[in-house]
Amino acid sequence: MNTHDPNMRPVIRQLDDAAVNRIAAGEVVERPASAVKELVENAIDAGARRVGIEIADGGKTLIRVTDDGCGMTGAELPLALSRHATSKIDGSDLLDIHSFGFRGEALPSLGAVGRLTLQSRVRGEAGVELSVEGGVMSAVKPCALNGGTVVTLRDLFYATPARLKFLRTDRAETQAISDTVKRLAMAEPAVGFTLRDVSGGGDRVTFRVEPETGDLFDALRGRLSRIMGAEFTDNALAVESEREGFRLTGYAALPTYSRGTAVAQYLFVNGRPVRDKMLIGALRGAYQDFLSRERHPAVALFVDCDPHKVDVNVHPAKSEVRFRDPGVVRGLIVTTLRHALAQAGHRASSTVAAATLDAMRPEAGQSYASHPHAALGAAPEPVSGPRVYQMDRPSLGARAAAYRAQAPAPGFADLGDSYSGRVVETAPVAEAPAEDVTRRPLGAARGQVHENYIIAQTEDGVVIVDQHAAHERLVYEKLKRQMAENGVPAQALLIPDVVDLSSDDAARLLAVADDLSRMGLTVEPFGAGAIAVRETPAILGEVDSQGLIRDILDELDDMGETSLVQEKIEAILSRVACHGSIRSGRVMRAEEMNALLREMEATPHSGQCNHGRPTYVELKLSDIERLFGRS
């Protein structure tokens, strides 16, 4: 877009401070949530242990951040509103950053586009106040304040009304502010946060967390439980690992506790919330073998390193970072998460059982007459909720005596003294094993229903196993082990496929040629800007070499690494496992069912199928009894 008049020479001018600050505000402050982020980070950097945030109309008309930090003196207030004035770095080393902020742009930028008031008090001194409106600063004056700092921002973007047109609804902006505060609360478990919505003269607390105590993992677990929910922490694995100066800590959820979008992925670098493409790609790579592409893992991961190993000054909002050695960080994340998931063994998310129980419970408001067993002609009896029965719970001995006293019903003669039975039409009854296998995690097989689901009894509940999904995962893990031990067989092409590329693309592809060769794909240079594909993985059959090479290049361009060939091979192995596993509709003998349960207990990742769905559901006896009103 060139609007220059060739008859006029453009003259270079120095912009005034107000224009400079408004331009900076356009980079730093995209929306009210950006302003909240900058002000809360300043409060944390000031050593605050409690931070209060008040907003009105989605932060458009009011943002007020109150903290109990160290405060500022009257001489420092005007300096705080000057560009590139900061207490967090001395300017000698722009990589040695140990705080959230460091550029000194937030307050002057906010003062340029809104009505900003600073109130602060240092311990042992009087409180002081300073206002700035549209870039025009008032004189410092005394004020009444207990301690810390209060920053009040009114009428955001009033000085640049065009920006207001690009803001979303009050509800959407409020949600963005809440998400920002929650991310900062995760990064600082020792700090308490309170978010209030005072729109229309109200005072509604929308988010509150108290400072957490305890060691790193206890404090973090408590904070995550309050923000992401107890279900997340109950179904997440604690991870901790270190490699070449990088340390990874946090919690990663089981694959069966996945989400439809990436809303539950929280990533931090040196305590700073970030949305980094490389980190997200590493996360996807760690879970690629356990989740389908439309499912997303839930995690809260913290990467810590020497500040010189990462550049946090590559984005105006500091939401992206650049690592000096991204390959080490990616490898650390992928290896650590896969090891943690393998250590989880057959464990599956507890939310699977909760969803099953919810599906079984009667709906509130269901009338007795609507029940399928209601007597014909009976008057309707509306009920406000599920029936609750009060009864004495007999002891185990009393229940056993009652069962022995009752004549067995037809078809259940093999129950004996226990209350469970194995229903197999043609197979003989197996002898009871010497070991009490109900003490095993997946219990003892008691029956098979609909020729697809195994019913097993544990010490304190019942396990329902999808025999096809479970065996499919077992076969898949066995195929992967064999591939890892023996390598990927390659098939040599009679005539190599030549793929024409640009010189840059060819160089990028050849840089990962060794990695591709280990997966059975052999590529070699073939003149300027071309490569020759000499071998392809045999398991893939006939391969469109050109399409495969270009897909690999796209992934290299997007993620910096490629796992496309491995994903394709594992997809084939998954299909082979599906066809080679126990089919639905097959009647299984008791020893086969128990052998399947024991192998599941010994095989990593057996709690979910190849697509992330659960292979079994465990129902606790106490929950089952509540379904029948025995609680």
Key descriptive features of the protein:
single chain, 631 residues, alpha+beta, nine-stranded mixed sheet, five-stranded mixed sheet, 34% helix
Count of β-strands = 25
Q: What is the residue-mean pLDDT, rounded to a whole number? A: 80
Q: Structural class given helices, strands, pairing?
A: alpha+beta
- Give the terminus-to-terminus CA distance: 74 Å
Radius of gyration computed on alpha carbons: 32 Å
What does this structure look like?
The protein contains 19 helices and 25 strands. It is an alpha+beta fold and 631 residues long. Strands 1, 2, 3, 4, 5, 6, 7, 8 and 9 form a 9-stranded mixed β-sheet that branches. The chain has a 5-stranded mixed β-sheet with strand order 10-11-16-13-14, sandwiched between helices. Strands 19-20-21-25 form a 4-stranded antiparallel β-sheet. α2 (32-45) runs parallel beside α6 (170-187), α9 (277-287) runs parallel beside α10 and α13 (467-486) packs across α17 (564-580).
